[in-house]
Amino acid sequence: MNAPARISGYQNVHRALCDRRLVQSMYSECDVLMERVLLTLHGDEHTCRRAIEWKLFRRDFARYYEREVYPATLARTFDPYLARGHLDLPEFGFRVNINLSADIAGIDRPEGSKSETDALVAFTRKFSEGATLFHSTREKSIVRQEVAAALKQFNEQFLLPSRSRREALLKQIEEGSQVQEAPRDILTVLLANRADQDLDDDMILREVAFFMQAGSHSSANALTHSFHEIDQWCRHHPEDRSRIMADDHFLQACVHESLRLHPASPVAWRTASEAFLLPDGTSVDEGESVVIDLMSANLEEPLFGSDAEHFNPHRRVADRIPPFGLSFGIGIHTCFGRDIAGGLGDARTQGEAPHLGTLTNLLKNLMQHDARPDPANPPLADADTERPNWGSYPLIIGQQTGGAT
Predict the structure, then answer these.
(1) What is the b/e burial string over 186-215, where b = at least 16 CB atoms within 10 angstroms of the residue's CB?
(2) Which structural domain, as residue segments, surrounds residue 344?
(3) What is the pLDDT of residues 61-88, one digit of tens each?
(4) What's the pTM value of the predicted model, to 2 decimals?
């Protein structure tokens, strides 16, 4: 079997990601979760699904969530850890983002209890294992069985009650009753468009579960990578520690730099839907696999500088190049959570407060409480995946050094 064609370099990768003749193929290992979810759709079906869901992710929602909803969510999650004086960063990141994911996906937590969060964390971790099965080091058939069991339990415990509430509300709205507006979430959108989009119950379950994992898994990993990079930078550049504490824009630049160096996946896999020439001139046949090297794009020296392989929050990138490179993708599969997680950049010239994004706000809160690595418990890599993620990253949190977020 021939090795797949490989695309590298920023411009070639950019064009390949935007080429509709290249079909998403990394997520076919776990169809029990990923079959016909937005990420794996292609062509007209993808266009229609994306059109109805993208409306939820307008920038006004990202700003509203950051300013009105997220602070309370963060405080509820963080306070118990602060009382204990320590936390594991990947686990903390997962828990704090699970509520964001649930809000967007349309999963109600009527009790607002720790047990509800515990259950959602357990389900979503299993969904994440299924979504990233391509890189798993475990027996894949066993993972598929576990994901199927988790989906069944999640459906009964959370999705069916949430769905019943929304179906009743949508019916009242359709009948002209004077009721509240429909919730702004994925489940409501899917229910309102199920006939036009040919969505059965299993498809709705998979799509909601996919959004649950997409919003929490990658954000928890990104949070841990960002903290590690900032901590290492400050050890060698102590003069920047106070600036990171005082300058939100500089902290956001640190996050963007870490996102550039640590994309959720270093490569994207596609399959050619027809024979054609790739952006670098390589010929591919119909059905041939193509590996798109995102890391090579994010490390291209003419765009990101001669030290592109290293973390440098003072970096100046070429014009019209995102500071985080192509880590959020581009084209039809651009990550919906880009603005929510990464923020909208420097808004000082717009006469309004910046939208920092959930990652920057999380790090800001941790640093205001003097979060630092636990010298007695060094971080460990995640052994269950080939992706370069942290499995655990123990932190000590102590005396507050600034105002609360």
Answers:
(1) bbbbbbbbeeebebeeebbbbbbbbbbbbb
(2) 5-375
(3) 777 777 777 787 788 888 899 999 999 9
(4) 0.89
